[in-house]
Amino acid sequence: MAGATTPNINRIITELSTIAHNHLSNPFFGFGPISDLNASNNSMMPIIWLEPDNSTLKNTVSGFRSANISFKLYCLDKINKGDSNFQYLMSDMFQLGAEVAAQVRESASLRTLFIGFDLSEHQVEPMMRGTDEDLNGYIFHLKFQVPIIYTPCNNPISPLSPFIIRPTPGPTGNQGNQGNIGIGSQGPQGNQGLIGVTGSQGPSSGGTGSGSQGPQGFQGNQGLIGSNGTQGFKGNQGFQGPTGPGNNFTTISFTLDQSILATMSSYPYAIPSLPAPGIGYAWQVISCAVAYVFNTFDYSWSQIQIMPVGGFIGNSYQYFFTMGEVGASYIVTGIPSFSTTSAYPNIIENEGLQVQTDSDDGSGGDATVTFYITLIKITL
Questions:
Q1: Strand 63-78 relative to strand 135-147, pairing
Q2: CATH 3.30.70.1700 spans which residues of the chain?
Q3: pLDDT one-digit tens code per residue, 6-23
Q4: Three-class SS state of 261
Q5: Which positions ≥6 away from 64 have C-beta within 8 Å?
């Protein structure tokens, strides 16, 4: 069922076989349980033998995304009678295993298929007279990360039940019109009050003099105030539009130093303030920048990527930064990811976010890097 470009265990075995056959020591390569090595009665020395070891599937809310595949790589040779070559044999077999591991780490064939080689420490144990043929050498425990490209949508299994698709919320409705404000008409003005009674004329004195003026008449009573007009009708309340989305934007910043940045490819840094957001939600980075503060030496890696926890370097990132001027401090903005695939999603339900470099540092870098990230919690 696997095509020529399907990442699987067989690709790893084929790559190791190719490396062994191209080694100048011309070792014999075999695969299977180590007990089969005795049964083969092989006389070609040295021997590179590959045996499957315990492996795991990484499960996430969105499904199985990767498998951690482990092998035991035996590098063995036959000791002379009297153990005269024991010292050189053990030294040569350790060197042979280290050379194979170094070649696997840089394999273009595996990288093309997005098969990752674990860059952390690998256990190496001696094997002395471990077979019927009195073979000695070392066992190298190698670990690979193989992407799982099959989902319920594209695997070679007929669907057992229909899938549930969450509908997308409809657009927000327009706000209703404002009702009219009622205004009553002005009531009529009251009638003018009556004019007071005129005082009586004063008596006339004899002669030519005028009589004195009578007193001022009293002022008439105030006229009645007209009644108020009827209150106008109040317009109906307009329909209220649905509530728009809340402000879910979050802005964070944090600073990392040499103790984390030196091995951030092998050990990605899970951002403590951005844990899994919960079922039905996911983090999406909106914008970001980093401030690189140079000290004595630059790091040897060239990129930092922001991605969901459990993502793949170079495939699952939401943003990445390319390092700038050598031997200087600077601030650089991130570049977003423009495409992805179902095998390497850069938005994953209920997963936190992590930062990861494209390789571990090999130059003793000691700069600090401060991250400034704006993101939103989206509803799936």
A1: antiparallel
A2: 9-147
A3: 788 888 999 999 999 999
A4: helix
A5: 57, 58, 148
Question: Sorting pLDDT into bands at 50, 70 and 90, what band is 40?
Answer: low
Tokens 């989206």 belong to residue: 378
Cα distances (angstroms) measured from residue 371 to each of 83, 267, 311, 332: 58, 18, 19, 10
Tell me if the domain spanning 9-147 has CATH number 3.30.70.1700: yes
Q: What is the pLDDT of residues 49-88, one digit of tens each?
A: 999 999 888 776 656 678 889 999 999 988 887 778 889 9
Question: What pTM value is reported for the model?
Answer: 0.42
Tokens (6 digits) for 317: 């990132």
Structure confidence by residue, pLDDT tens digits, 338-373: 556 666 678 889 989 999 998 899 889 999 999 999
Domain(s) labelled CATH 2.60.120 in the chain stretch across: 249-379
Phi, psi of 323 (to 5 degrees): -60, 145
Output b/e per residue, 51-81; b: 16+ Cβ within 10 A.
Answer: beeeeeeeebebeebbbebbbbbbbbbbbee
Q: Which amino acid is at 2?
A: A
- Strand locations in 226-361, DSSP E? 249-256, 269-270, 281-293, 303-308, 319-322, 330-333, 335-336, 353-357
What does the pLDDT look like over 104-138, one tens digit per residue? 888 888 887 788 887 777 899 998 876 667 789 99
Say which CATH class 249-379 falls into. Answer: mainly beta
CA distance 108 to 62: 29
Of 2-11, 70-79, 149-158, 165-174, give the range with the top mean pLDDT: 70-79
Contacts of 282 (CB under 8 A, 6+ apart): 308, 347, 348, 349, 350, 351, 377, 378, 380
Determine which helix (DSSP H) or strand (DSSP E) holds 108, and give its type and residue range. helix 108-112
d(CA 283, CA 249): 10
